[in-house]
Amino acid sequence: MDALGDPDPEVRDSYPYAVLDTWIRRGVIDGDRRLALGDLMAERFTDPRIQARTFAPLVLKMIVSQGCLRPEWLGAFAAWYRSETDLRGRDDKLRWLHAVAHGADLLGACGLRAEVDPEPLLGLAAERLLATTDYLFAEREDDRLAKAVALVLTRPGLTPDRSTAWLSEIGAALAPYERGPMPAWASNTVRTLRALYVLADLGVSADRDGHPLPLSCGNAVRSQVAAVLRPLLP
């Protein structure tokens, strides 16, 4: 597993990652070993190496998608995702880092699990968007995060209020930028909400070629997203 934190992108992002993904999906790595691997990845959220931190959610997403999830993994992930400051999509030497996008993939996978309360995940997405940063999403992080939120919003039982409450804080944070320059975090947030609006209209699939599922309260989500974005239109 050391290869998944290696600074060489050819070591980290090719053979070991692909093999691990295949073995997890095919059940070559059984339940006990998946749990042990998940524990190791959860520990990596506090690793000093940025590439180790940002590849941990990718592996956890594989594991969670196969039905394994410990509450402590979710806690470790949330603590990291809301506070990570190195949001670069790519680095000249390390190549793909993608903290926001990789974290979004795990957030979406957790959001599909029946044992996970969806509302804290929506709040976590809002915290990630509202955290101050000078990094402007340049590698489709907005699309990945919007997809994750949309997956959470497909959960049965969500009411219109529960589906949209997380947008209130975002609307309040964006209100001062109805006129004048917009900081990077605000631009990132606006672009993510635009992508979410489209998914609320068309539906979302966890798989690239899968059948899109409707959001449980898609009309309410579209309406509230529009209410947040409308004052920002020129």
Topology, element by element:
Layout: H1 9-12, H2 15-26, H3 31-43, H4 50-65, H5 71-83, E1 90-91, E2 95-96, H6 99-111, H7 118-130, H8 141-152, H9 160-164, H10 166-174, H11 184-202, H12 218-229
Antiparallel strand pairs: 1-2
How would you summarize this macromolecular structure in one to three sentences?
This protein has 234 residues and is an all-alpha fold.
Give a structural overview.
With 234 residues, this protein is mostly helical. 60% of the residues lie in helices and 2% in strands. The chain has twelve helices and two strands. It has helices at residues 9-12, 15-26, 31-43, 50-65, 71-83, 99-111, 118-130, 141-152, 160-164, 166-174, 184-202, 218-229, and strands at 90-91, 95-96. A two-stranded antiparallel ribbon has the order 1-2. Helix 8 (141-152) packs across helix 11 (184-202) and helix 10 (166-174) packs parallel to helix 12 (218-229). It is globular. It starts with 8 loop residues before the first helix and ends in a 5-residue tail after the last helix. The model has no long low-confidence stretch (mean pLDDT 94).
List keywords for this structure.
single chain, 234 residues, mainly alpha, two-stranded antiparallel sheet, globular
Query: Percent of residues in helical segments?
Result: 55-70%
Counting helices, strands and paired strands, the structural category is: mainly alpha
Q: How many distinct helices?
A: 12
What spatial order of strands do you see in the largest sheet? 1-2
Mean pLDDT: 94
Principal-axis shape equals globular
Q: Please outline the major beta sheet.
A: 2 strands, antiparallel
Proportion of strand residues = under 5%
Distance between the termini: 50 Å
Number of strand elements:
2
Low-confidence stretches: none
Estimated radius of gyration: 18 Å
Order of helices and strands: HHHHHEEHHHHHHH
